[in-house]
Amino acid sequence: MGFSLLRPRRALFAGAAAAALLVGGGTWTAVAGHGPASVQRTDQVLALPEAPGSAATVKIDTSYFTSGSSDVRRPAVLLAHGFGGSKNDLTGEAQTLAREGYAVMTWSARGFGASGGDIGLNDPKAEVADVSGLIDWLAERPEVQLDAPGDPRVGVAGASYGGAVALLAAGYDKRVDAIAPEITYWNLSDALFPDGVFKKLWAGIFFTTGSTDQSAASSTSQSGPRITATDDATCGRFAPDLCAMYQRVAVSGKPDAAAEQLLAQRSPSAAATRIKVPTLLVQGQTDSLFPLDQADRAAAAIRANGAPVAVDWIAGGHDGGDMESSRIEQRTSAWFDRYLKRDTAADTGPAFRVSRSGGVDSTSGTVTLQGASADAYPGLEDSPEAVSLSGPPQTFANPPGGAPPAVSVVPGIGGLGQLSSLGVGLSVDFPGQSAEFSSQPLTRSLRITGSPTVRIHVRADSDDAVLFAKLYDVAPGTGGARVLPSQLVTPLRVTGARAGADVLVRLPAVDHQVAAGHRLELVLSSTDLAYASPAAPASYTVSLAGNDLSVPTDPVLSTAAAPLPWWVWALPLLALAIAAALLLTGRRRHWSGRPAADPELVLVPLRIQGLTKRYAGSADRYAVRDLSFQVEPGQVLGLLGPNGAGKTTTLRMLMGLIRPDEGEIRVFGQSVRPGAPVLSRVGAFVEGPGFLPHLSGLSNLELYWRATGRPDEEARLDEALAIAGLGDAVERAVRTYSQGMRQRLAIAQAMLGLPDLLILDEPLNGLDPPQIREMREVITGYAAGGRTVIVSSHLLAEVEQTCTHLVVMDHGQLAQAGPVADIVGSEDAVLVGTVLPLDADQLGKVAALPGVASAEQVADGLLVRLAGASAADLTADLVRLEIPVQSLGPHRRLEDAFLTLIGGAAR
Predict the structure, then answer these.
(1) pLDDT for 745-754, tens place per residue?
(2) What average pLDDT does the structure give for the chain?
(3) Distance CA 673, CA 664 (A)
(4) How far is CA 70 from CA 65, 79, 105, 106, in A?
(5) What is the DSSP string of 480-525?
(6) How do beta strands 367-374 and 829-834 pair?
């Protein structure tokens, strides 16, 4: 959901096979006319039955992608989007599959995008029946391969909400031949009401998103306007029965039988015995919404039906982390190659794969991943090892109103779960509200792969007890770090607790390495922030019903070695190349009078030393004076300064457009002069772009590249266009472009040849906020590949978010250079984004927290100045105070630092 349910890539069954009615004539466009293969796209609205057998219809907005000749029949793929998304989220993936030889259809599910109808949560009689209508339409296409009349060969893929419809489509329509669902649910009732406990935070995000989506028109059904359950705006585009169900459960804090039945009937598990097609199940390890056990149940059911199943546990999930999108898209494509194209040579990968942390790459600071694989999926309780726990019976309280709650995962603050693999985490349990049982330090390391289990005995002074079970990895020593793997917790509703009951606790499924010397600690808490617990105060007594914790392992999993850093193999080759180049060209360069290359700087994108440029006709007035700095690979450097500081003059000298009076500029060790060969490794957008308005963007780029005199194959045009994100607009005349599109085209022009050093002068000029955000992603994405970007801009907030390093100039001289964090200053101020502004009482409570110096409401949120507390401490305290936190980060103060450096004077 959000996160991946709200926005991911793929969205729903089969009902009566009524022919799809074409509402709009359709719009055909060429998605890409340059490169290895062009893609044709048809946008149209189909009228599908509102319900099987109904004469009323609902409009479904679709896009259809093909590549190559229409005379060649090929398999089809339906791509379904995530909750809160639309067909537009899937365009890139659809284009890729089309180029790989598939006919691809995307669509906006009912209640989303430009489609009509209500959100029915994959109702078999609505969203899932729409999938059958789309398959009917595909069966009539001349380029789609048929297995029988009316039966196209078709696969379905999707993530989260869209992943569920892939499973449901296979269960309700026998024409589906293969599926690839990602991070989705098997039983939505179990996912939102695990063991009868209401997952209130995720459910709230889920239903609030649908209830506030008013972007599309209401239903176009012939039956008349849609009536919500409450006939007000609180239901948004949700179907009335779902809206009423959520409001009922949210008020009571506990699901009733009708609510559980409603969600179960709309889940893939309801069609378990009918899903008999090859299935690739991708599930997230950092996912408190749809945990690994959802995919485990799906795998067991589908495998029991005799169908091939592969399971892939990725590092990310709905709680954040690395979604491994590129790898999963490649594996999905191979899966369809094998089972749709019937290519027996296609490598579909192992039956079971787990992504594991390989540590932090010291050169980039990013978490590296390694894959562990096995020839069979073992389930969640394979090869168990017993770990003894000890501890006396313990009594603790459920506080009135369930507050303050313990903290495990916080939906919306993504990535916390993935940090546990690096020994970092945020979890809070309150004394008097929890019980603890601990093991002795382990004598050897232990890899948990699956769901540990333990038996406990529960007695309460109420009929029902609600508990939350966690298994911590505790480091040695007093106050050793306690890590909750993936920040996951198991809720338990114990009925008959007044008389006492034995309970088998299945702890969350994880893949986690416990180091030798660490302890395992079982914690049972009466509250958890993410769930609803009883409002009435109660007393619980918990004891171990057996001393052993059963820990599943998978000893046959083989972990691939981490790839060597590029420099291990590249530097020796590079050194040889440098030596050869120096031997071959050194004499020629000496004769030419140009400074020789500096071999020590061959990997340094830019070094400026003593750079000076006087104003014309002046001996003592300087545009740039004695400027020196160095830029390293992979950096995004912000070049800052007030008007007249000398930034543009510096960039023009860097590009060889003007000569310096003194000093030197070296790019990758080569001295820069007008026409220097090394400038072929530099791309630039300085002082605005110039394009021929009557030509298309693509034609302008092609003409520009021809003017360089370099071979066409070196342009790498497709890659530059993909990074710049121009999409279909590249085929239009430039005179039709918005300012944002012109800026993107200029960036694409600067990126031609994928230069190692990219220089952008005021790339954000004239852009609106969404365009600025998109441009930020373009810049950071370009540098992520190891290339270097220099950005000159007056938009300090954007520079702070985009750049890793800064050079600040004033009156032509260097004022300061270094990492952004060093220039911005201290980390004692934190900016907290909240859903709504805080009232005076809430502000007072925050200001009174230990380790907090002050708290004030500012335009961007809540500004908290710390006096000893850490950001993690503050997050936990805010959660306990029930402050609705949306984001948390250091207070942006680049503007203050900048004005301090230049004296704060207006120019």
Answers:
(1) 888 888 888 8
(2) 83
(3) 9
(4) 11, 21, 15, 19
(5) --EE-GGG--EEEEEETTTT-EEEEEEPPPEEEEEPTT-EEEEEEE
(6) unpaired
